[in-house]
Design goal:
Blueprint (H helix, E strand, L loop, with lengths): L1 H13 L5 E11 L5 H4 L7 E12 L5 E18 L4 E18 L19 H5 E5 L2 E9 L4 E16 L1 E2 L4 E16 L3 H4 L13 E16 H6 L4
Length: 232
């Protein structure tokens, strides 16, 4: 993951000051996971935050745009076992690469210089887009810091929608919502760490697939437009 991050940053720099970058942040909400049945808590590892960095490019003749993205998420939860008095501190750091594809169905054949940012039409026509988001994610899972630690590579697929809102000629704000599905994430030895030596609880499994909702905003910056105004 470190090598991937270095490669991505170097690639961005190589495009120079004609590029458009984006940063995004928001909340991720997980659906039911088989892991939660070990603790008996319906809200186990449900809510976390996400931050991301992307680079923008597009097709020339139609409004299909791409924002490949590196992102980081974190989910944390403490769980107390009343009978034994034990406290377990769960953490999942997620390092992801998502290849986001944005399709503008109401403005599909317009060759405008969007989303930068002077829009002659309605904001819905110019700014509304659908998002396809396949991804690969590195799960860094731990219990009680490094007492029990494992990791897994998890593939995901997402679909969503966003709306570009031009703030200036070089800044655009995009609220968005995405629905992701994660395939077969494994928390190795989770049952051992929680001292389940007999029959596992019903529906509990160390491997789980689950759904996730993301609510967030993206701020995009067009550097070549900034240059026109003397920002260098």
């Amino acid at each position: 993951m470190k090598k991937l991050s270095i490669f991505f940053v170097c690639s961005l720099i190589s495009f120079g000051l004609s590029a458009q970058f984006g940063i995004n942040a928001g909340v991720r909400q997980n659906g039911d996971m088989d892991w939660q049945y070990f603790t008996g808590q319906d809200d186990f590892m449900k809510t976390g935050f996400k931050v991301g960095l992307d680079y923008w490019f597009r097709l020339k003749k139609v409004r299909v745009e791409f924002t490949p993205e590196l992102n980081f998420s974190q989910f944390k939860q403490n769980f107390d076992i009343q009978i034994t008095g034990e406290t377990f501190k769960f953490r999942n750091n997620v390092y992801g690469f998502h290849f986001n594809t944005n399709i503008y169905p109401l403005n599909f054949k317009d060759d405008c210089n969007c989303p930068t940012f002077k829009k002659d039409g309605q904001i819905l026509d110019k700014g509304f887009h659908l998002i396809l988001s396949p991804g690969v994610n590195y799960f860094d899972l731990s219990i009680n810091a490094d007492e029990y630690k494992t990791n897994d590579l998890v593939f995901s697929a997402g679909i969503g929608a966003g709306l570009d809102i031009g703030l200036t000629d070089y800044l655009t704000l995009t609220p968005m919502v995405l629905y992701h599905h994660y395939f077969d994430a494994e928390w190795e030895d989770l049952d051992t760490a929680l001292n389940f030596t007999d029959e596992l609880p019903e529906n509990a499994s160390t491997t789980t697939s689950f759904n996730q909702l993301f609510f967030g905003v993206r701020l995009s910056i067009r550097l070549d437009e900034m240059n026109k105004y003397g920002y260098r």
